[in-house]
Each structure stands twice: as structure tokens, then as C-alpha cells.
Amino acid sequence: MNTQASPPTPSPRLERPASWYRDSIAVDLGACPPLAGEVRADVCVIGGGITGCSAALHLAEQGYAVVLLEAGELGFGASGRSGGQVLPGLGTDMATVEKALGLAAARDIWTMSREAVHLTAERVARHAIPCDLAWGYLHAAVKPRHVRELAEFRDRMARDYDYHALTLLEGEALRERVVTDAYPAALHEREAGHLHPLNYTLGLARAAREAGATLHEHSAALEIRRGQPARVVTAGGRVTADFVVLGTNAYPSGLAPELAGRVMRAANYMIATAPLTADQAARVLPHNDALSDANFVLDYYRLSGDRRLIYGGEVSYDGREPRGLEATMDAKIARLFPVLSGVPIDYRWGGDVAITLDRAPDFGRLGANLYYAQGYSGHGMALAGLAGKLMAEAIAGQSERFDVFAAMPHRRFPGGSLLRTPLLVLATTFYKLRDRL
Ligand SMILES: Cc1cc2nc3c(=O)[nH]c(=O)nc-3n(C[C@H](O)[C@H](O)[C@H](O)COP(=O)(O)OP(=O)(O)OC[C@H]3O[C@@H](n4cnc5c(N)ncnc54)[C@H](O)[C@@H]3O)c2cc1C
I want to staple 394 with a disulfide (CB 3.0 to 4.6 A). Which of 220, 310, 348, 399 is the partner? Predict the structure, then answer.
């Protein structure tokens, strides 16, 4: 009998999935070799999406020695696959925050969510990130009750939040921005926009590295040994650090059992058409706005820098792509924009979002030196960048702003690990049915 232990099976290399984003990378990061051996850092950041790269950037700019560990390639997760819509606010209505924390704290959170959008723009400009950032967003009603709700939302945001960037468009004024009869009205938002999410994420990573952070791809954190300092273990090495930042969001790391059940993972899908002609693009989104509809299980789209229609929607909870995805998306696009009938779909891909029970993001600390931010609930493009900044502030001893978010109470999804997914599917089916009413 051979009693020799067999060598450990190498874990599969996590590479970015085929997507239009992957095929249009414009940021050269150079090599980020896996962690090898023992290193000492002030902060170990786990996760190379917007949350992790933003935290690494802010910390490195303040002079901290930062080591960032990413299980796959940088931008492997949602940040490199997203719809790229850069929006203020949260994945939930501000009323949810008011109910939990009161109007004053909700106003602070809203103001910081606007800061998240400005911070995105400022980072893009300062670090010359080639990510096609463009401004203008439409929140489109699909049915009459949505029109009422959007008008009430605009009024409430002006009255309670002093926010005046929303204009309700109907009729010709609306058709001038989105050329379809599908929507009875839409709110146009000046302070929101869209970008190429993978290039943006890689641009943050590049800026973090230029500021002094060390980045390691293919370096999954396998364990965090808590303590002061903490030790983060990978297959090839170990980081000893005074602080740890966890930015793994929907991509399950199993590193902090206390967080189990606070977020659920749901896959979301996108397609990219072939590039449109200038005339076709002008007959879809002539002002290059991004758009989401007002359904609970929503569809969203925008034009890319090379004029493809990037269209997202459709969810799955078991990680399996919905059957006939491409045909479903194709039919939706043809219904909205008959002018695009026959335009081929060049790419399709999916990615995981982490949702919380009430769709508000989940920020917190475990012990004195482990910070986390997760559960942006499909609304993290801008917010994840701010989360990284707020964790950096908290590590530097100024935690007031982080604590405003961390005060948000979060309940676990009911049902334990076996029943959570079926219950979520049931709840979503209910909302999908309601979307049809
Ligand atoms: C299809 C899709 C469309 C979306 N559209 C929008 C949109 O239009 N607007 C919007 O605001 N939001 C959108 N979102 C959500 C948004 O993309 C996310 O909220 C945001 O990118 C989250 O960033 P993150 O850095 O927290 O997580 P991620 O980008 O998912 O990064 C987490 C990283 O952690 C790594 N990781 C996991 N475990 C480990 C470990 N043990 N060790 C090391 N690394 C690990 C993963 O490999 C991953 O790269 C969308 C998401 C998807 C999937």
C-alpha cells in the first residue's frame, strides 16, 4: 500500500469570465504574482473588487503598508462584470433607513452616497482611468403606479433630502432621451451615470499600487487567525497585519462565520450586442444615459464606449444560467427598440451580487481590527468605493462616518443554510408576479 501523502491538488485558477469587459481592458496592471512567504503589513485587504481596491488605495495614500490578496484576477468578481451604473442612494429606499435610524442619520447616509458618486468621478479624473465615464440616468416607470411612485420620490427627495437633481419626463421630453414607447414616464437624474466597471476597478488597483500597496492575484485567503496582529493565511504564504479589511462580498470566502446568512448570493446576467451604428445609437439613447426600469426584478442598460447596448436583467439563485437567456434578452431588446431587431448579441456573462434582507448595505467590524463591507444589493458601483474609503478612515481612527452605516441593523435571512435559497426564490417569485400587476 502506498502510504505517501499525495501532493495537494492545486485549486483552479480563477480567471475573469469571457465578457465584453474582458475583451476591452484598457488598464495595464502588469504582473501581480501570488503571495509567497511571510510578509508584514499594517493592513491586509482581502478581495480585489472595488471595495478592496478602494480601501487599499485610500490606506496606501495615507502611508499605510498595505497587502491586497485576491483569490482570482483583480476584478474577477461583480466589480468586473457589473452594469456599470454609478448611482447615489442605496439598493433600498431611504424610507428603510429612516425607519431603522431616523431621518437625521438617513440624511447623512444619503449625503455620503452622493459623495460616493463624486468620489468615483474624482478618482477617474485624478488617476486618468480610461473607463468611459458618462453622466445621465433614467429611472423608468413601467406601469402607472410607478409614475406616481417616481413623482412622490422626487418630491420627497427634494423636501427631506434637499436633493434637486431629479426631473420627471413624460411624452416627447422622455422620447427625446430614450426612444421607445415602453415607458409612461421616467425620472432623469443628472448626478448619476455609467462607466466600464472592469477598467474602473483595474484603474483603482493601479492607483493603489502606485500609492505603494502590494497586490497579489491568485492568492485566496484561506484563514484569518484573529488577534492583534492578525494573520491571514494563503496557500503560498502568510500576511501578519494590524488590521484586516474583508471585501469579498458575494464571492463566499467562509473567512468570517459570524457573517453567514447576513447576505445571500444571487447571479445576475448581462449581454453586449455588436456595436451599433451612430444612427441606431441615436434611436435608442441619444444622450448616452443609463437606464433602469422600476420593477423589483429590474432590467437595466446603457451604451458602451464603442456603442454596444449593454443590457442586464434576469436572476438565478442556484448559479445556473437561466434557460434561453440570450433569446430572452434579445426579445426584450427588440420589444423596446424595434430598430435593433437583428443586431447580434456578441457576449453574455453573469456575476454574483450579495443582497441583504432589507437591501441596505452591511458594514461592520468584528473584534477591534477586522472591518467588512458587503451586501450592496446590486447598488455597489459607487457605494463600494466609498465603503473602502470609510474603512480606511476608521482604521486611521476616524470611524464616525463608517459608524453611521454600521449602525444599520441587519437581520439574517431566515431558514438556515438549507432553506435560505428556496425562501429567497419564493420571495422573488412573489415580487416578479407583483411586477406584472
Ligand atoms: C451582473 C451585475 C450587474 C451589476 N450592475 C450594477 C450596476 O449597474 N450598478 C451598481 O451600482 N451595482 C451593480 N452591481 C453590483 C456591483 O457590481 C457590486 O456591488 C460591487 O462591484 C461590489 O464590489 P466588491 O468589491 O464588494 O465585490 P466584488 O467585486 O465581487 O469583489 C470581491 C472579490 O473578492 C474575491 N474573494 C472572495 N473570496 C476571497 C478570498 N478568500 N481571498 C481573496 N479574495 C477573495 C473575489 O474573487 C472577488 O474578486 C452589479 C453586479 C453584477 C454581478
Answer: 399
Nearest CA to ligand 1 atom 35: 47
Of 437, 5, 20, 98, nearest in space to 270 by CA: 20
CB-side neighbour CA atoms (13 Å) of 403: 6
Q: Can you give the pLDDT of all 437 residues of the chain as single tens digits?
A: 333 444 444 556 899 999 999 999 999 999 999 999 999 999 999 999 999 999 999 999 999 999 999 999 999 999 999 999 999 999 999 999 999 999 999 999 999 999 999 999 999 999 999 999 999 999 999 999 999 999 999 999 999 999 999 999 999 999 999 999 999 999 999 999 999 999 999 999 999 999 999 999 999 999 999 999 999 999 999 999 999 999 999 987 789 999 989 999 999 999 999 999 999 999 999 999 999 999 977 899 999 999 999 999 888 887 788 889 999 999 999 999 999 999 999 999 999 999 999 999 999 999 999 999 999 999 999 999 999 999 999 999 999 999 999 999 999 988 766 556 655 665 665 555 556 55
Please state, in angstroms and rounded to a whole number, the distance separating the CA atoms of residues 112 and 108.
6
CB 160 within 8 A of CB 261: no
Cα–ligand 1 centroid distance for 73 (angstroms): 12
List the residue whose alpha carbon is closest to atom 11 of ligand 1. Answer: 379
Report the separation in Å between the CA atom of 278 and the middle of ligand 1, taken as the mean of its atom positions.
32
